[in-house]
Write a structure and sequence with these properties.
The chain has one domain (27-285): 3-Layer(aba) Sandwich (Rossmann fold), CATH 3.40.50. With 297 residues, it is α/β, with parallel strands linked by helices. It has helices spanning 60-71, 85-97, 112-126, 150-171, 197-217, 235-241, 266-276; strands at residues 51-55, 75-80, 102-106, 131-134, 180-184, 223-229, 287-290. Bound molecules: nicotinamide-adenine-dinucleotide and magnesium ion. Nicotinamide-adenine-dinucleotide (NAD) binds at residues 24, 27, 56, 58-62, 79-81, 84, 108-110, 135-139, 159, 184, 186, 229, 231-232, 234-237. Residues 1-38 are annotated as: Disordered. It holds the Pfam family adh_short_C2. Residues 1-13 have a biased composition (Polar residues). Belongs to the short-chain dehydrogenases/reductases (SDR) family.
Length: 297
């Protein structure tokens, strides 16, 4: 008899302590620490020899993807903001512990010139590029649209949407047939919360971008898919993504998931790997929901 875990209790169901950090927040200051697979993700050579660029790779979902990619045999470049250097250094150590190359490229994705430089540097230092995992994102809850500053509106669209255009345009000359682009959308791109008007609009946009681009790039043999997470315990949420009163019951209260808890980043790792690997050879233009059961159709 195997010790089969119950998904309701496989990860913590405790209330989370309230905790605010200025965005983007440092994962290593969170209580409890998110689980990005640091001690648990086991690879099996699915991405041997591959070369991946992961935005937002310092923490949360991007860190989970970066760790899994390295454990599956890929060399990995990660992007993050300069203030996140301590989180990024932890990821670098984890990648190098697998005998893989880790390239750290801090910088701001809301700048087109930086997006171009990021891709060129990743391609040069990895000696090629065949996985583009676009995970970085900005989420700031604002209850009333009258209080939504234009600066936030612009930054949220630049980081969440424009940067995808800029990085993909820079990467395409380098991506071979068989390469995979993976965007990160959200349950907010299907069933938006009232206090996330700007963020939700970007997540709908990412879904449209993914579906359109997948059709355009199919003839090149490049697949484009998206992952739509539900409530996942990450720095994004405690640094203004949610009001602090939602933090204790995040994932079981507001928002409420059928599985009754927040997800952990490691619970997305296998899908970031699957969509990057040739195992998903007949999958393109799709949105994979990992939401604890929250509906996305
Ligand atoms: P996270 O805070 O750990 O990661 C987000 C990352 O975005 C940061 O680490 C930061 O490096 C990056 N980032 C933000 N602004 C940037 C900028 N200007 N330039 C460069 N990088 C920047 O949080 P996460 O939850 O792992 O977020 C990853 C993705 O998952 C985001 O796109 C988010 O919208 C999406 N998502 C998260 C949840 C959730 O509940 N946590 C749910 C649905 C979707
Ligand atoms: Mg971070």
């Amino acid at each position: 008899m195997t010790n089969l875990p119950n998904p309701r209790t496989q990860y913590t169901t405790d209330d989370f302590p309230k905790q605010f950090q200025e965005p983007p927040g440092l994962q290593n200051q969170m209580d409890p620490l998110p689980d990005c697979g640091e001690t648990s993700y086991v690879g099996s050579g699915k991405l041997a020899g591959r070369k991946a660029l992961v935005t937002g790779g310092d923490s949360g979902i991007g860190r989970a993807a970066a760790i899994a990619y390295a454990r599956e045999g890929a060399d990995v470049a990660i992007n993050y903001l300069p203030v996140e250097q301590p989180d990024a250094e932890e990821v670098k150590k984890l990648i190098e512990a697998e005998g893989r190359k880790a390239v750290l490229i801090p910088g701001d994705l809301s700048n087109e010139a930086f997006c171009q430089k990021l891709v060129e540097q990743a391609n040069a230092e990895l000696g090629g590029l065949d996985i583009l995992a676009l995970v970085a994102g900005k989420q700031q809850a604002v209850e009333d649209i009258l209080d939504l500053p234009t600066e936030q509106l612009e930054k949220t669209f630049q980081i969440n949407v424009y940067s995808m255009f800029w990085t993909v345009k820079a990467a395409l000359p380098h991506l071979p047939a068989g390469a995979s682009i993976i965007t990160t959308s959200s349950v907010e791109g299907f069933d938006p919360s009232p206090m996330l008007v700007d963020y939700a609009a970007t997540k709908f946009a990412i879904i449209g971008f993914t579906k359109s681009l997948s059709k355009q790039l199919a003839e090149k043999g490049i697949r484009v898919n998206s992952i739509a997470p539900g409530p996942i315990w990450t720095a994004l949420q405690i640094s203004g993504g949610q009001p602090q009163e939602n933090i204790p019951e995040f994932g079981k209260g507001t928002p409420e998931t059928p599985l009754g808890r927040a997800g952990q980043p490691v619970e997305l790792s296998s899908v970031y790997v699957f969509l990057a690997s040739p195992e998903s050879s007949y999958v393109t233009g799709q949105i994979y929901s990992i939401t604890g059961g929250m509906p996305t159709a």
